[in-house]
Amino acid sequence: MEQLILIPLRLKDFKQIIKDCIAETSLNLPQGEKEITNDKLTQKEAASLLGISEATLIDWKKKGLLPYHQLPNTRRVFFLKSELKLVTSQNPQLLKAARR
């Protein structure tokens, strides 16, 4: 019989672990299936995709305007291309204001 270990965990941390596991699993899909999955982007890549500076991206991240992912107990942050596209399609004035 397997041993069950219970660890107290905040719901926010649990959700992040699940999201990260899904993102990592998508990296192991066959090449044809990767097209339908989310591409991980660094801050620099995300800023470039959106046509904004990294400083603006970081500011928006801190204000909660953009979804991002961070592994527990690390400072590493990544963005999912599909999430960024969804946010910008639902809120096009966000990019217009940044590009003024």
Amount of helix: 40-55%
Low-confidence stretches: none
Strand line-up across the major sheet: 1-3-2
Would you state the CATH class? Mainly Alpha
- How many discrete structural domains? 1
What's the CATH topology label? Multidrug-efflux Transporter Regulator, Chain: A, Domain 2
**With helices defined by DSSP (H or I, 4 residues minimum), what is the helix count?**
5
Report the span from N to C terminus.
62 Å
Main sheet, how many strands, which sense, barrel?
3 strands, antiparallel
Q: Please compute the radius of gyration using only Cα atoms.
A: 16 Å
Shape: elongated
Give a written overview of the molecule.
The chain is mainly alpha-helical and 100 residues long. The chain has a single domain, classed as Multidrug-efflux Transporter Regulator, Chain: A, Domain 2, CATH 1.10.1660. The chain has helices at 11-26, 43-50, 54-63, 81-90, 92-98, and strands spanning 40-41, 69-70, 77-80. Strands 1-3-2 form a 3-stranded antiparallel sheet. Helix 2 (43-50) crosses helix 3 (54-63) and helix 4 (81-90) packs across helix 5 (92-98). The radius of gyration is 16 Å and the shape is elongated. The mean pLDDT is 81. Keywords: DNA-binding.
